[in-house]
Amino acid sequence: MPTFEDHRSLLIGVAYRILGSVADAEDVVQEAWLRWSGVDEATVDDPKAYLIRVTSRLAIDRLRWAKSRRESYVGPWLPEPISTAPDVAEHAELAESVEMALLLVLETLSPLERAVFVLREAFDLPFSEIAEVIGRAEPATRQLARRARDHVRDRRPRFDVDRDERRRITERFISASADGDLDGLIELFAGEVTMVSDGGGKARAALRVITGAENVSRYLLSINTPANIARFLASIGMADIPDLSFGVAVMNNAPAMVISARGQVITVISLLITDGKIDTIYLIANPEKIAHLEPTAGPGGAP
């Protein structure tokens, strides 16, 4: 239906920010479409508001279910990375609301708090509409928003926002990793750098957070050996070692390292950079979380 398709990307954006999962967001929007297809459009005064309301309610219900499922997740859980358009920076609030670090902070909110935060802070919906979405009175909705905003402010990490600098550091990180340059990696890292790996039990990845510049550097170089590369590829169903491609792509509003093999993305590494140093590394290798992404470069190259 034309009206629904006009708003599909917006609805995906709402659902993704509430859920942190591309697959779940797409499922929610598909369910919203099914509900919309059974509605007489002539009876809907504001289709956009109606669709946001339906999508948000479905996403809240889905998040409640997902949170219980994530309790048994193998290893650390990270949000699914998304490719963000080059012009996303023109919309600062929308861009910042998909940053990996922020999405992880949103994971610590209740489903209602998260939905209220997303709808207010990212999409600037009036409290009267948000109250209708969550089925609460407007004063209670404002209280939820204030609590969520304070929670996020207290826990949100500070990071560098200069896109060119972030890309330069990401490219240096790729070069040092590919060259096996231990000193080069240590130089890029903050002293207390942390690395969080998400394989979900479906790809070889560290099951615990790794901390410290030397520990993280040595781990990264250890997984870059032919034997460990072969083990990783075998864990995702590749029997031999194909040529690997290394590229930089904008993921979640930040430059990220994208590793591909045989035309499919096999790992995404996103960096949180503070004061010119890499403070946190997010490594996502769970094939279910990156299957929707496109490779970014040819063998060994960067775009």
TrEMBL record:
Family: Belongs to the sigma-70 factor family. ECF subfamily.
NCBIfam families recorded: PRK09636.1, sigma70-ECF, SigX4
Protein's name according to its UniProt entry: RNA polymerase sigma-70 factor
UniProt subunit comment: Interacts transiently with the RNA polymerase catalytic core formed by RpoA, RpoB, RpoC and RpoZ (2 alpha, 1 beta, 1 beta' and 1 omega subunit) to form the RNA polymerase holoenzyme that can initiate transcription.
RNA polymerase sigma factor 70 region 4 type domain ranges (all copies): 100-151
Domain RNA polymerase sigma-70 region residue range list: 4-65
PANTHER family xref list: ECF RNA POLYMERASE SIGMA FACTOR SIGJ, SIGMA 19 FACTOR
Domain of life of the organism encoding this protein: Bacteria
Keywords recorded for this protein, A-Z: Sigma factor, Transcription, Transcription regulation
